[in-house]
Specification:
Layout lengths: L2 H16 L14 E2 H4 E3 L5 E10 L12 H13 L14 E10 L8 E8 L10 E8 L5 E8 L5 E4 L4 E4 L4 E10 L13 E5 L4 H18 L5 E3 L4 E4 L7 H9 L2 E2 L6 E5 L4 E4 L4 E9 L2 E7 L2 E3 L10 E3 L2 E7 L3 E7 L2 H11 L3 H13 L3 E2 L1 E4 L1
Parallel strand pairs: 15-24
Antiparallel strand pairs: 1-14, 2-11, 3-4, 3-6, 4-5, 5-10, 6-7, 7-10, 8-9, 11-13, 12-13, 15-16, 17-22, 17-23, 18-21, 19-20
Subcellular location: Bacterial flagellum basal body
Main location: other
Pfam family, one: FlgI
């Protein structure tokens, strides 16, 4: 390139930048996906815990004690522990509700940490707004107590009722308590106790597992001079430990590596909502498709027949039924393409509704022209 041409390009680049244009000076590559977003480390997972408790402080929107007997029994047991005997009394309060408390215990959470909890009503309470959860032990599947939850609820829904109308928005019988549970027991095991590092794919695929293994080995060759990863199957990639780097830093470095995950050719159809999701690798062999609708309308227009004067007749209702049938014209279109854009363009040219597209995809699959898996929900 001559100096004059370089000067001209530099001046042109400066003018375009000053006018607010985005100038691309190099090739554009598609952004990859991090390994940490498509795979999880085996053994590093959440644990579910739950418990039964009481919510107090409700403004007359709690359980009806006569209908929810477990709420009355829980309230009596609570007051007995506090030295108050109400066994022979007829409790009529509606400011209390029995609830279930659920939470996810993150991996390797230490004692004294706090987690969020979800509170849901069990009885006939109409709203938990303004309530406070009393201390509730949360147990795991082994029956041991791992956390204790307590605190005021945050409820987003509300319910307003009058004599002739009721307005409800959201779910007023469920709420959350941010940082509402205090961890009392740690889950056995630590990160260092893992026998091996195994990355499990969220969407198992042989090609994606191979790409993850190749990306890790390419990085390890430059960092350690040896390969440390191998794909066990379509679900798991095994990584060897390295003495040259701490295990935590090794996992962090591997998680930031990017690849282009492969997705199977799949079409997901939801007939209830009319939703159609077509994967990127879906192709259709060339076929001719026509689709028409037959509409039948039945109209009832009864008429009143009056008798003649002085005829001593009776007024009767004579039925009048009109039936019409109309069939719309169907367009014959050719569908087929090697990529998603061509397929969508062909479906749009036919001009169909989502329900019609679902029927066409099912017919094309039956004809053997849809080169993908059809999932109907």
């Amino acid at each position: 390139m001559t100096p004059l041409r370089r000067l001209f390009l530099a001046v042109l680049l400066g003018l375009l930048t000053g006018l607010g244009f985005a100038v691309m000076t190099g090739p554009v590559f598609a952004a990859g996906t991090r390994i940490k977003d498509i795979a999880t480390l085996k053994g590093v997972r959440d644990n579910q815990i739950f418990g039964y408790g009481l919510v107090t402080g409700l403004q007359g929107t709690g359980d009806t004690l006569r209908n929810a007997q477990f709420t009355e029994q829980s309230l009596q047991s609570l007051l007995d522990r506090l030295g108050i005997n109400v066994r022979d009394a007829r409790l009529r309060t509606r400011n209390i509700a029995a609830v279930m408390v659920t939470a996810d215990l993150p991996p390797y959470t230490g004692t004294g940490s706090r987690i969020d909890v979800t509170v849901t009503s069990m009885g006939d309470a109409t709203s938990l707004r303004g309530g406070t959860l009393l201390m509730t032990p949360l147990t795991g599947g082994d029956g041991l107590v791992y956390a204790a939850a307590q605190g005021p609820l945050a409820v987003s829904g509300f319910s307003v009722q009058g004599q002739a109308e009721q307005l409800t928005q959201g779910v007023p019988t469920a709420g959350r308590i941010p940082n509402g549970a205090l961890i009392e027991r740690e889950v056995p095991g630590t990160f260092r106790d893992l026998p091996e590092l195994v990355f499990e794919l969220k969407n198992p695929d042989f090609k994606t597992a191979t790409q993850i293994s190749d990306a890790i080995n390419a990085w390890s060759m430059s960092a350690f001079g040896r390969r440390i990863a191998s794909a066990r199957d379509q679900r798991a990639v095994v990584v060897l430990r390295s003495r040259q780097m701490a295990q935590t830093r090794l996992v962090a470095q591997i998680g930031d590596l990017t690849i282009q995950p492969d997705t199977p050719a799949r079409v997901v159809v939801d007939q209830r909502t009319g939703t159609v999701v077509i994967g990127r690798n879906v192709t259709i062999s060339t076929v001719a498709v026509t689709h028409g609708n037959l509409t039948v309308r039945v109209t009832e227009a009864p008429e009143v027949s009056q008798p003649e004067p002085f005829s001593n007749g009776q007024t009767v209702v004579v039925p009048r039924t009109e039936v019409t049938a109309r069939e719309e014209r169907g367009k014959l279109a050719i569908l087929g393409g090697s990529d998603l854009q061509t397929l969508v363009r062909g479906l749009n040219q036919v001009g169909l509704k989502p329900t019609d597209i679902i029927a066409i995809l099912q017919a094309v699959k039956t004809a053997g022209a849809l080169q993908a898996e059809l999932v109907v929900q």
